[in-house]
Amino acid sequence: MNAKRQLHENSRTTALEIFAIKRKLDFRMSLHTLHIVQGLSHQRERLFGKSDGILDMNLRP
Q: In this predicted model, what pLDDT tens digit does every residue of 40-57 receive, in sequence order?
């Protein structure tokens, strides 16, 4: 009986560890995506100048 309970605890711990790793990876991917978007925004500003938003893009000749 004790071995069965230990196996259950080990499975639960493993599941929690996997969940924590997944959350950490999700967070890192979010940061990575944010850095890519910021880089693209910066590159756009360098190429076309600063924009006041979507309306500014539509008013350009």
A: 999 999 898 876 555 555
CB 14 within 8 A of CB 22: no
**CB-CB contact of 40 with 33 (8 Å):** no
Q: How many residues does the chain have?
A: 61
Mean pLDDT of the chain: 84
The domain ranges of the chain are 2-59
Query: What residue ranges in 1-61 does DSSP mark as E strands?
Result: none
Name the token pair of 16: 């929690």
**Residue type present at position 40:** L
pTM of full prediction above 0.70: no
Count Cα atoms within 13 angstroms, Cβ side, for 56.
7
